[in-house]
Design goal:
The chain is of the alpha/beta class. The chain folds into two domains: 11-136 and 288-308, Aspartate/ornithine carbamoyltransferase (Rossmann fold), CATH 3.40.50.1370; 137-287, 3-Layer(aba) Sandwich (Rossmann fold). It has helices spanning 16-33, 58-69, 90-98, 114-119, 137-151, 169-180, 209-213, 237-244, 248-251, 274-278, 284-308, and strands spanning 47-52, 73-78, 104-109, 125-131, 158-162, 184-188, 203-205, 218-221, 259-261. It has a five-stranded parallel β-sheet. It has a four-stranded parallel β-sheet with strand order 2-1-3-4. Helix 1 crosses helix 11 (284-308). The two termini are 15 Å apart.
Length: 309
């Protein structure tokens, strides 16, 4: 198998075979993280620039670790200490960095479409690490990998995605990814936090929490995104908690071997009861672990494409 694009911008653009190729490659790279010496010379001599216009812990750290484990040279730009604070545009920032001949950019930006825009400015590979409320493809891939490790076949599963779907780039990527692999996807959120158009045949809108979680094999909980003014879309946090929190009682209605995922950061006792996390009933840390392997795979596949072009 192979991947014939230089960039990873959107899950919407991936085929089911593309998704499986990324995940099978990630499984091989995960073995490296389990060794005493967690390093291979695979990308020695390659340079990757990480540009995060928004705060990040898991995504940024896992990309940096992935680059180090592949022996790539990496540079992380601190936006607060860059020329962006002096008014430099995204285009000029990329063009100046492009002049230094990097092999890849990892970009997180508050504007939807930013990664696609950058991909047209540079011959380097561009990996979308989250663009506005649009997509977060590597998070989707690690979510699917986490599920496949436990469930083997995604195609027969019921996947519930619950919470602030409108502002969630993770939700959009997961909707595309899981539905492309044949899963039945149920969405539940306040009406004000549901996207207007969802035109995928195996995606359904649940009427309530019970319908969303009943018999679910996978439940993906999403936080209210205060940085995107989500609080203005709901009457109050208390009311949201009463109607949209995943509780132990609701969880008991799901499949006996249900997997609970969350892209983080988690607002405990808002979208998910703290007792569910404390009781070890989530796969949150497994998602974080798989994030490194998935991002190693993405760098390897994309930079391999450029090398063989």
């Amino acid at each position: 198998m192979s991947f014939n694009k230089k960039d990873l911008i959107s899950v919407k653009d991936l085929s089911a075979s593309d998704i499986n190729y990324f995940i099978e490659t990630a499984k091989e790279f995960k073995k490296i993280s389990l060794k005493d010496i967690k390093k291979v010379p695979t990308l020695r001599g390659k340079t990757v620039v990480n540009i995060f216009y928004e705060p990040s812990t898991r995504t940024r750290s896992s990309f940096e670790i992935a680059q180090k484990r592949l022996s790539a040279d990496s540079l992380s730009i601190s936006i607060a200490q860059s020329s962006v604070t002096k008014g430099e545009s995204l285009k000029d920032t990329i063009l100046n960095l492009e002049a230094m001949k990097p092999d890849a950019f990892v970009l997180r930006h508050s504007e939807s479409g930013a990664a696609h825009f950058v991909s047209k400015l540079t011959d380097a590979s561009v990996i979308n690490a989250g663009d506005g409320i649009n997509e977060h493809p590597t998070q989707c891939l690690l979510d699917i990998m986490t599920v496949i490790e436990e469930k083997k076949d995604v195609g027969s599963l019921k996947v519930a995605i619950i919470g602030d779907i409108y502002h969630s780039r993770v939700a959009r990527s997961d909707i595309y990814g899981f539905s492309k692999l044949g899963a039945e996807v149920y969405l539940y959120a306040p009406h004000s936090l549901l996207p207007r158009l969802i035109e995928l045949k195996n995606v359904k809108i649940a009427k309530n929490m019970e319908e969303a979680v009943k018999g679910a094999d996978v439940i993906i909980m999403l936080r209210i995104q205060k940085e995107r003014a989500s609080y203005y879309f709901i009457p109050s946090i208390e009311e949201y908690r009463n109607f949209f929190q995943l509780t132990p009682e609701l969880l008991s209605k799901a499949s006996k071997r249900v997997m609970v995922l969350h892209p983080g950061p988690v607002n405990r006792d808002v979208e998910i009861a703290g007792s569910i996390i404390n009781g070890g009933r989530t796969h949150i840390f497994k998602q974080v672990e798989n994030g490194v392997a998935v991002r190693m795979a993405c760098l390897y596949i994309l930079l391999g494409y450029l090398k063989n072009k």
